[in-house]
Amino acid sequence: MKKWVVLPINDLEEIQKRHEIVNHYVEKKVEREELQKELEKIGDLERLISKVPSRKINPRETAQLKIALDRIPPIRQALEKANIKGLKSLIHTLNDCPTVRNKIKDALVEYPPSQLGKENVIANGFHPELDEYRSIIKDSKQMLLDLQVREVEATGIQNLKVGFNNVFGYYLEVTNKYKDKGLVPDHWIRKQTLTNSERYISEELKVLEEKILTAEEKSLTLEEDLFDKLVSYLEDYIQPVQLNAQTLGKLDCLLSFAEISVLNDYVHPEMDESFVIDLKQARHPVIEQSLPTGEPFIPNDIYLDDKEQQIMMITGPNMSGKSAILRQTALIVLMAQMGCFVPAQSARIGRIDKVFSRVGASDNISSGESTFMVEMNETSSILNNVSPRSLILLDEIGRGTSTYDGISIAWSIAEFLHTSAKGAPKTLFATHYHELNQLAQKYSRVKNYNVATKENQSQIVFLRKLQAGGSHHSFGIQVAQMAGMPDTVIQRAKQVLSQLETKNIQQKKETEDRLSDMESTIGMQLSMFGNDPKWDTIRQEIEEIDLTTMTPIECMMKLKSIQESIKEKK
What we know:
The chain is an alpha/beta fold. It has five domains: 2-125 and 226-263, MutS, DNA mismatch repair protein, Chain A, domain 3 (Orthogonal Bundle), CATH 1.10.1420; 133-221, MutS, DNA mismatch repair protein, Chain A, domain 3; 270-485, P-loop containing nucleotide triphosphate hydrolases (Rossmann fold, 3-Layer(aba) Sandwich); 489-519; 529-569, no CATH class. The chain is built from 21 helices and 14 strands. The strands form three sheets. It has a six-stranded mixed β-sheet, with helices on both faces. The radius of gyration is 43 Å and the shape is elongated.
């Protein structure tokens, strides 16, 4: 899952195969649940097999490895039963590993402990010598009793006993009554004389003693050796087991996609090679799950393409949901190209090769980079790497510097993306700079949108609905009031805002008057030329110059050319 999130696929055919599999298990609930039950028994197969080369796998984990591999045949049968084209590659890569399963089954007890030495690990019947040691450990008392019975029958010493001490181990004890009768065999060796008895040892008793006293140690040593050989045997099968783990991981992800698609009402996205993103009633997959009970998520439509609506310029107040709309669009594209269904009523998505995001604010103090510098670095990276199939999310570009600088930079970035020679990357541009709404009048593929709000006296209600048209208010003071700012601060802010707006209106009127005067003067100056045809060419040439697309050097060269033309006409 992590790999698919970080590196979603870009192969349309492979994406459609995954969607086909997810769609099948969305519709076939019983088959989905049966496979999920099988997968639950497997555990982390990749982690288990990764412990084999370092010899860190323990007996219980080795048994779990067999349990996991035992589930592969029924899983294969279930996949073959589904008869889906997209599943054929998964079925082909599954390996039943029968030799590994049989080897572990023969070698280990059914439920081995996690450590060697506490309980039996190797199964009975797997190794004759180990069985003998275990038999000795288990039947040592009976073996000593059998020896005693045999010696009584052989010697006729009725009260013969087998005892043990820490000095010379096991011994045969004969009372003085039988000692004096000459019944003690010559091959017995006397080891101790007591008041009423004598203690002897025999060759058979010493052999049995050695077996009994060393059986446990030898049993443990032999078990360790046999388990080590089993782990060495598993090393030859690491690659097929890892391939099984990867295949089962993919299947598990696809089944999870089907499960959440059913639970959360996700829709099958239509994926193609177009340059269109058309989402109807799209939702944020995370936010909608974290909302309080009973509070609905407000869905929105998103449409982007390279012909009519390449850039959506989204304005609106803070907390209205602009950033959520940007994020949910990127998440839906990401989910679709992972192979998952998406939270929307319908979705058509042209294949995306890159998703660029400039969202949030952060600095890099250790490198001496301010928040604005970090923002500019990231934006620069975006502009230098865009492609026609890119999706770009820009949130509040230029907010870290002065207002006019920020507007200028944001304006220029939007123009660059619209006129980029690399193509027309689909862009969601959220901003508080309402001046950017003017771009829609100048560029055909820039469209203005705003997140709807409802103002009730001094209160503001966020409707979370994206609608056509630009917004001219940010409602910053109202948001500050909602945050609990002191009333004195709020009232003073309103006074300052009123003063600034009045001043801005006056300045704007003065600017317009000044421009009007300049236009009149220019008109008078041009009229000085009269209707002389020789100046019409120069005037037309000046009017056709597009300064926004020319470099400083090109401007100088053009000016020099016009100057030379005027000299010639004189």
